[in-house]
Amino acid sequence: MTATPWLPAHVETVTPLTAHARSLVLDVPGWTGSLPGQHLDIRLTAEDGYRAERSYSIASFGPGERVELAVDEVEDGEVSPYLVEEVRPGDFLEVKGPLGQYFVWREDDPSPVQLIAGGSGIVPLLSIARARAAAGTAQPFRLLYSVRSAPDALYADEIEELRARGIPTEWIHTRLAPPGSPRAAGRVSLAELERLTIPPSERPLIYICGPTAFVESTADAVVAAGHPPLRVRTERFGGA
Ligand SMILES: Cc1cc2nc3c(=O)[nH]c(=O)nc-3n(C[C@H](O)[C@H](O)[C@H](O)COP(=O)(O)OP(=O)(O)OC[C@H]3O[C@@H](n4cnc5c(N)ncnc54)[C@H](O)[C@@H]3O)c2cc1C
């Protein structure tokens, strides 16, 4: 089997998403396209030869050589501050991928889909939601998006557009609820999860993505609510 090669990636555009996150659109000659939900690896090489590699989910999907990523800065991190604050259009990075065959959505799967995101965990789920909207399929989709406060949400405007196109969204604000919000700030409870997501009787596929602690507690909660573990797919971004 041939190993996936590192490919040079030309940074086309950078767009702020929040005060601490931005999207990067890369032009990657030789890129084979990606399935909704896949990720890639980025490799940075310093002048003295020191190298760092990290994984980033792909917000775009489908064929073509343009790849969209969204990076949320981890304050004391090594790679994300560089990607969020330093990288400019015209710069080159190296990428390897697409990677991952498990945390993907396939258009021919008729199952209802429940997406559950914490923070930057929205990225692969947005790719899945975009693919569902583009496919025009009719199966029920829902998104539950947990963020610290409204200004921390990535792609909020696009998510509202997707809501209008048939992907109802529930917002959970963990630290600061927006003015007039019917829900006080706080982590999602088991009772809320049960009320706000597709029930086990409809046998949805559930995709959960975000920081490790968020993914583990949410996956435990949906299984406790009666969803079979094999219908629950998780992707952990690291961190608390
Ligand atoms: C499959 C996969 C897909 C990913 N996709 C994305 C993506 O689309 N967008 C994105 O922004 N990140 C994504 N990540 C996380 C990303 O790979 C890095 O871990 C993240 O950018 C931090 O890297 P860093 O070098 O800045 O921090 P590091 O130097 O690696 O870590 C510094 C400190 O921050 C903590 N930390 C590491 N990661 C996180 C985190 N995510 N949240 C909170 N604390 C953390 C560490 O425990 C450590 O204490 C993904 C991770 C995986 C495994």
From TrEMBL:
Cofactor(s) required, per the database record: FAD
Stretches assigned to the FAD-binding FR-type domain: 4-105
InterPro entries, per the entry: Cbr1-like_FAD-bd_dom, FAD-bd_FR_type, Flavoprot_Pyr_Nucl_cyt_Rdtase, FNR_nucleotide-bd, MRET, OxRdtase_FAD/NAD-bd, Riboflavin_synthase-like_b-brl
SUPFAM superfamilies: Ferredoxin reductase-like, C-terminal NADP-linked domain, Riboflavin synthase domain-like
GO terms, molecular function: 2 iron, 2 sulfur cluster binding; oxidoreductase activity
One Pfam family cited in the UniProt record for this chain: NAD_binding_1
Record keyword Iron present: yes
Sorted UniProt keywords: 2Fe-2S, Iron, Iron-sulfur, Metal-binding
Record protein name field: Flavodoxin reductase
Lineage: Bacteria, Bacillati, Actinomycetota, Actinomycetes, Micrococcales
